[in-house]
Amino acid sequence: MNLKVLKITLISLGCIASSCLKRPNLTRNELSGFNVYKKNDTIIFQNLISKEKDTTIIVSKKKYHSYEPMINLKYIYAHAVVQYKNKNIKNSYNPETATMFGLCKKNNAPINPLYFNYLNSNFDLDSETQKQSVILFQSDKKIENAYLLIYHKPEFSGANEDSPEILYWDTEYGIVKFITFKGDIWERINW
User: Fold this and answer.
1) 8 Å CB contact between 153 and 159
2) Which DSSP symbol is given to 10?
3) Edge to edge, what strands does the sheet with 174-180 contain?
4) What is the 3-state secondary structure (H, E, C) of 83-147?
5) Where are the domains of the chain?
6) Percent of the chain with pLDDT over 70
7) Best exposed site among 70, 102, 103, 157 by fewest CB in 10 Å?
């Protein structure tokens, strides 16, 4: 009976201690990449030359808090995660679903610039990233201020010839165009 009382007491003290900790919150600016897509959004891309199509589906979006009571009670983390799956071009790490956008913030500490992954290529969107106009030929659409992002692939990378080397990111539409390492140009065609 004493062991049961001790367990309940320890669990209660852990709950009280964790409720006293200040939870980190993600700002609107930090969530800008997270808020672009909704669950079940379907993004259709078409290859400019071969006219082949590929579909990206947003599988899930989650915001949550976590902490590690056994390691360090003073750190609580805020998370924001967007996961996707692709119909034709697969992510080599997990062919079913992959994380496109993920944030993890510790106790209101500043976070790194917006970071996201698409088809095994990793991109950073920071204050030095250039904006430019992008004309999408297949949908006759012009995006005025898309961020031009370049993936400088390290030697040991999961990226392959079908992975994006150059990607255009818009704060309203997300990924609007990408160019693979083998030179294929893919444009978004559904709006």
Assistant:
1) yes
2) H
3) 121-125, 114-118, 98-106, 72-86, 53-68, 42-47, 185-188, 174-180, 164-170, 141-150, 131-136
4) EEEECCCCCCCCCCCEEEEEEEEECCCCCCCEEEEECCEEEEECCCCCEEEEEECCCCEEEEEEE
5) 22-188
6) 75
7) 70
